[in-house]
Specification:
This protein is about 30% helix and about 20% strand. It is built from four helices and six strands. A hairpin with a 2-residue loop joins strand 3 and strand 4. Helix 1 (about 35-45) packs across helix 3. It starts with 9 loop residues before the first strand and ends in a 26-residue tail after the last helix.
């Protein structure tokens, strides 16, 4: 009698990852992910609920030291967000924590359609927009020129 092979399934909310099958599901629907996107989603699911720095993500997914000028993490996060949004609309999965990193946690968007950037940043989930430039905060005064 053959022993059944037990594979580990990773879950976070309505996301399911079957690593041995290279398969990710969102709400039971297969996500069409590249290998890198699947590695990124797996890294986030394994660290769900906590803020994960770009450096930690890069080390886990790219398996090499992070270079601050490399925007790969941000690009792949955007692609992954888009695919998750297509699979399960009106739900936010990946939260940005400016200056710190990203956090995976499923959260429904407010009813009445999509959210504006102002709603996303004022959701009370710890996300905040980058500060607006204020003339009093600038180190140097740049005089305005007249035409």
């Amino acid at each position: 009698m053959e022993a059944a092979i037990q594979t580990q399934v990773l879950r976070s909310g309505s996301i399911e990852i079957h690593p041995d099958e290279f398969l990710a599901l969102a709400g039971g629907h297969p996500l069409n992910l590249t290998a890198r996107e699947l590695d990124l989603l797996t890294a986030l699911v394994l660290r769900q609920g906590r803020i994960v720095s770009r450096e930690e993500i890069y080390a886990a997914v790219w398996d090499e030291p992070y270079r601050k000028s490399d925007r790969s993490v941000d690009v792949y996060i955007a692609k992954l967000r888009q695919k998750l949004d297509q699979a399960i609309p009106n739900t936010r999965f990946i939260h940005t924590h400016f200056g710190f990193g990203y956090r995976l946690e499923q959260e429904p968007l407010p009813k009445g359609g999509g959210e504006s950037p102002e709603q996303r940043f004022s959701s009370g989930s710890g996300d905040s927009p980058p500060p607006s430039p204020s003339p009093s905060l600038h180190r140097f005064h740049i005089p305005e020129t007249s035409p």
